[in-house]
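Sequence only, no structure available. Ideas?
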Amino acid sequence: MLKAVILIGGPQKGTRFRPLSFDVAKPLFPVAGVPMIQHHIEACAKVPHLKEILLIGFYQPNEALSRFLSSAQQEFKVSIRYLQEYSALGTAGGIYHFRDQILMGGTKAFFVMNADVCCDFPLMEMLQFQKRHGDTNSFVMLGTTANRQQSLNYGCIVENQDTHEVLHYVEKPSTFVSDIINCGVYLLSPEIFQYIGNAFQKNQEDLSIEENTNGWQRPESIRLEQDIFTALASHGKLFVYKTNGFWSQIKSAGSAIYASRLYLNSYNKTHPERLAKTKDGGPTIEGNVYIHPTANVNPTATLGPNVSIGTGVTIGAGVRVRESIILHGATVQDHSCVLNSIVGWDSIIGRWARVEGTPSDPNPNDPYAKIDSETLFRDGKLTPSITILGCNVSIPAEVIILNSIVLPHKDLNRSFKNQIIL
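Reply:
I predicted one. Tokens follow.
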């Protein structure tokens, strides 16, 4: 029997995702029209004999999460439960704390996935790879190729090119180690808990020796990557399956637009019914566009490429939207223009207004380039990035909002450029 675990983190994580994470838990933020973790759940639901999906994190259970879980259970016909940690326990500490729940029912193997990754989730291929390499008790990491410079921002994997065994693993090295990086998707067997248990005991011993600790360190806070995989490398237990499919992290709001583009592009194969088409009497569609059935879009509007329109959105006459996410209940009034932006829930953009950001895309000429985790400030100035409007923001007519972040519940009365509007 198989299970899957999705690590969703908690409210003090996802700070780079603000102001969008003020109003919705980051794992539920819509990417390409559906909540971020629904892409993970859809991939898991396609795996035969996968009986249960467990979400582990330290969010307080809330109505939005409960509603999403019950609707996903009905749609995908698989048991989905949320297990709340009492504190941030790290990527290994969380699964170790709930090991009885994971192993219940005789689990032979289980997937572990970080919620903030976007990829095509080749789970079946990882299962077949595990059968071909090593035994059923071996562990498989999903890897992909990055360029030399960007590989330093990720966990780096040195593999035996014949057997694909992981010989060396370093998390965010200071010098170049390997161009194969960790994708944050793993196939593990119950034997992993033995190794995590050993790390837990070692942490306890170390903390008892250090009498003068601050008290914030917990022996049960264990990281799968640094504490477990680094030690497991070159012991014939850990293997890497390299994917040629798309992959990206969703750390910042800017990376959500790029992830949306990757998923919308994948819908051509996986969910063509989700992509809008230009029809008589409908808006002009360019490239991949998702429009929720409840949205009201004027036929003279032009949308795309890479646009996602949420529930109950109103798009006026002559509007142009490109490379943007418009969240539910927002109104974009006549002849306004939205480019490289995220428009928050229930926000209003006035007539003839222009809301524009600067895309933070990977280098299009480098097939292995990844999206950079952009810093908010550089040389004392706000880094030009996508424009984000928090929820319930009102933009007046005939103004320009450029490369700015607007916090929720703001009524603007003029144009802004390169500013955070508090």
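The chain has a mean pLDDT of 88.
Hope that gets you unstuck.
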